[in-house]
Amino acid sequence: MELPKKKYTIWDSMWMVFRVVPLAGVVHVLRRVFGGIQPTLMLLATAKFIDTALAVVAGEAARSEIWLPIFFVCGLLFLDHFVYAAIDLVMMRTQQKRNRILNLAVIDKISRLDYRYIEDQDSADLVSRVKKKINGDVWSCFDVLLNLVSMALNIGGVLAVLAAQVWWAGLALIGVCIPLFWISYKSGKESYQVSKETEKLNRKSSYLCGVMTERETVEERAMFRYTDAMNALWEKAALAAWRANARIGLRWWFRARIGSVATVVASGIIAAILMKPTIAGAVTVGMFVSLLSACFELNNKLSWHLCNLIDRAVKGGEFFKDLTAFCAMDEAAGGADAPAETLPPFERLEFKDVTFAYPGTERPILNNLSFTIETGRHYAIVGANGAGKTTIAKLVCGLYDNYSGEILLNGRDLRSYSYAERKGLFSSVFQDFARYQLTLGENIRLGDVLSMDGGGAAAGRAERAAALVGLTPAVERLSQGFDTPLGKIKEGGQDLSGGEWQRVAMARTVASRASLYILDEPTAALDPLAESRLYGEFAELSRGKTTVFISHRLGSTRLADCILVLDNGAVAEAGTYDELMAAGGLYAEMFEAQRSWYI
To answer: Distance between alpha carbon 583 and the CA centroid of its chain, in Å?
Structure first.
């Protein structure tokens, strides 16, 4: 299922449900339609039963005549309870399928989103709301619409029977409905607005809860003993969200109580209206009792159930506004495509006067940046924090394309290549690499998703990549080797050290089919001996590839054929290690500053 770019309303819940779970949709329609006409049928059956029973007691009818009304009353009760139970079973069996398809539709859209939305807070809140609410709200809105149809059938049926007895008595019932609709609509709109405002508080409290409970923070939690302080922060955020929701809940309750008083008054008026024709014999006792009971039940629905339905409908309408904004988000063309299998050869990558500022900011991170990367050579990029080193990697990988100037691949604009081609040509290890709770083999094969089936050739590439980055000792230690689940989610899972996780991230890049590797601080989590060994194996690791090495550890840059020194978003110096040290410029100054700590 795909979520098209369009204006969504609550009515779209109908086609979405019928598209995802058509059988459940049809069954639910029948359920609500029957629920709408059942009270009227029960009213007529009960009236007939009471009138027949009174006639039998008075000797005006044979006893055998009571069985048919009893059959109808019991039959309606049977359908109301047992058929609904069977329908609930169908609903439960299709719920998982419904949730899976809707979730996949949202995930598919997220996978194609332009990268700028990922780092924008407002966009992140919108995505979070849609992802969290789509399963419940789509079905809830579908159910609300059918419930409103059901209630309309219920009201129409009771009004028809009431009008058949005293035609103008239904006006009192209609007069109650109008203000209740307005009360419910206003309450629902306020409620959803509060839920939007509390989303940030909920995200913060969820994050703080994770800090206090997840294993990633257990060491610092035990060392700094900050649980009480973090609890206080969590309680403050959670309490603020609770208070906002409580205020809306109290208003909703108060308005519903006003509606309840109004419906009680209306029921009393209807009872008074029906009393006179009943005494006169124009309305039977059975019809009087049944109508009065139906009116009281209907008025109860109007005071509480209708308020709830309108409240849910308005909330649903606000959700579909969010869904409209979510689906209107720009997509990166081919963002969800797998890397291309057939790739052009990598010959040359050139930045020409590239200037770039992150969306929502004005300060350029890159400022008229120019340099060239030739195939088969090894480059190092160094500079102070914020100089733009990681930003270069993001532009090369296509995460952002809102730059001025030119980035040319083989003399052709980088943006003219498909996303699939760029994914295949470039691979990067970022500073904040991911730790996937999968098997070791799956963790590595993610670098080449075309080989995720884990066949012989794919397994061989994963094993070779692991050996090249020095993971062999870790593999031998794991109980199931490459098939060992990493992390603690699965039974039998084993964890790795920080340095080993970083090697896994590097293995993903090595296992890819990319021609250009971008290694952003690839040895930050390695100890000095492991780092030294990795540098010694660098020639084998990068054989036949072009590499860009981003690092603050300037000793590692001696391996590069060319070192680019960034300052204020531009190349301040470029050359080999010997050339830059002889020049005595910024690189030499930074190198000597680092070396002074070791001698």
So the answer is: 53
Question: Looking up tokens 């309303």, which residue turns up?
Answer: 9
In the chain, what's the furthest Cα-to-Cα distance?
123
Phi, psi at residue 427, to the nearest 5°?
-140, 140
DSSP class of residue 554? G
- For residue 491, report the phi and psi dihedrals to the nearest 5 degrees: -65, 135
pLDDT, average across residues 408-432 = 88
Q: Is the pLDDT of residue 307 over 80?
A: no
To the question of pTM greater than 0.85 for the whole model, the response is: no
The two tokens of residue 317 are: 């309408």
pLDDT (tens digit, 9 = 90+) per residue, 59-101?
888 888 888 888 888 888 887 777 777 777 777 778 888 888 8
Per the DSSP assignment, residues forming a β-bridge with 351 are 371, 407
CB 46 within 8 A of CB 293: yes
The domains found in the chain, sorted by start residue, are 12-327 (1.20.1560.10), 348-595 (3.40.50.300)
Residue 481: phi, psi to the nearest 5?
60, -130
Q: What DSSP line would sit under 282-337, residue for residue?
A: SS-HHHHHHHHHHHHHHHHIIIIIHHHHHHHHHHHHHHHHHHHHHHTS-B-TTTTP
Number of C-alpha atoms within 13 angstroms, CB side, residue 577? 12
Euclidean distance between CA atoms 575 and 560, whole angstroms: 9
Dihedral (CA of 328, 329, 334, 339) sign: negative
For the cut 80, the answer to whether the pLDDT of residue 451 exceeds it is no
Mean of pLDDT values over 237-256: 70
- Residue 406 phi/psi, 5-degree rounding, is -135, 140
Q: Which residues neighbour 166 within 8 Å (Cβ) at sequence distance 6 or greater?
A: 273, 274, 277, 283
The pLDDT of residue 408 is 94
Whether residue 245 has pLDDT greater than 80 = no
Task: Return the top range by mean pLDDT from 123-127, 188-192, 321-325.
Answer: 321-325
Instruction: Encode pLDDT of 347-356 as tens digits.
Output: 999 999 999 9
Residue 273: name the closest of 254, 303, 295, 252 by CA.
295
Query: And the tokens for 386?
Result: 């914020």
User: What sign does the CA torsion over 530, 533, 539, 541 have?
Assistant: negative
| Distance, CA of 394 to CA of 401 (rounded, Å) | 9
Q: Which of 341, 520, 331, 335 is nearest to 424 (CA)?
A: 341
Contact yes or no for 151/305 (Cβ under 8 A)? yes
- SS3 string, 348-392, reads EEEEEEEEECCCCCCCCCEEEEEEEEECCCEEEEEECCCCCHHHH
430's tokens: 């970022």
Tokens of 410: 């083989």
Q: How far apart are CA 541 and CA 516, in angstroms?
A: 12
In this structure, are strands 562-567 and 378-383 parallel, antiparallel, or unpaired? parallel
Among candidate residues 123, 42, 454, the one with its CA nearest the CA of residue 287: 42
C-alpha–C-alpha distance, residues 544 and 513, integer Å:
11
Given a contact cutoff of 8 angstroms between Cβ atoms, the answer to whether 129 and 322 are in contact is: yes
Positive/negative CA dihedral, 48, 54, 60, 63 = positive
d(CA 348, CA 337): 24
d(CA 366, CA 110): 28
* Residue 574 DSSP SS3: strand
